[in-house]
Amino acid sequence: MRTLAAAALLALALTGCSDDESSDAATTPSTPVDTTQIPTVSPPSSVAMPDPPSEEMTSNQDLVDTHPIAFASYSVTGDAGDRVAVHFDSGAPECFGAAATVTETEASVTIALRTGTLPAAVGKACTMQVVPATLEVELDAPLGDRQVVSG
After folding, report:
1. For the chain, which has fewer Cβ within 10 Å, the N-terminal or C-terminal residue?
2. Which stretches does the entry tag as region Disordered (predicted)?
3. Distance CA 64, CA 42 (A)
4. Which residues lie below 8 Å from residue 51, measured CB to CB, with a gap of 6+?
5. Hey, where are the domains in the chain?
6. Quick check: 140 and 146 in contact, CB under 8 A?
7. pLDDT digits (tens, 9 = 90+) for 58-115
8. Burial (CB count <10 Å: 0-12, 13-18, 19+), residue 85
9. pTM for the full model?
10. What is the 3-state secondary structure (H, E, C) of the chain?
11. How far is CA 1 from the centre of its chain?
């Protein structure tokens, strides 16, 4: 888009700079500006990075001022595949916690995740920071080929 705008300005500048109305076409540059050639930039190659450390939370149903939050990803844990760890961003673990409700069907596992303030942190000064967090939930049956849904 910038290249197109620059080309248009250049064309205007080249054709409209003369104050002399008697100038002929022979003195005006007639080189066309090619606006179809837009340079491409290749993205940098990706580099494998280790997963950042994650705060392991336990489900706490006594949270205050909760709000629903979607988890970013999940992983199947447990020897029998009957546990799912959901990965999400939370606040400082001294002040904030999470709770999950699991609904299972034959086709899917819906995990409703809520975050909120820990009861012991109500009225305390808490820092505003984002902490990668993990909460592991137990399933009634192994996940198998069921779909995991953030709900």
Report:
1. N
2. 18-60
3. 48
4. none
5. 1-38, 55-150
6. no
7. 888 899 999 999 999 999 988 888 999 999 999 998 999 999 999 999 999 999 999 9
8. middle
9. 0.62
10. CHHHHHHHHHHHHHHCCCCCCCCCCCCCCCCCCCCCCCCCCCCCCCCCCCCCCCEEECCCCCCEEEEEECCCEEEEECCCCCEEEEEEEECCCCCEEEEEEEEECCCEEEEEEEEEECHHHCCCCCCCCCEEEEEEEECCCCCCCCEEEEC
11. 26
Nearest to 88 by CA among 64, 114, 119, 108: 114
Copy the structure tokens of residue 58: 């336990």
The token pair that represents 88 in the structure block: 């999400």
Per residue in 72-85, pLDDT (tens digit) is: 999 998 888 899 99
- b/e sequence 58-69, b meaning 16+ C-beta within 10 Å: ebbeebeebeeb
Q: Tell me the C-alpha distance between 42 and 40, whole Å.
A: 6
CB 143 within 8 A of CB 80: no
Structure token digits, residue 93? 């673990």
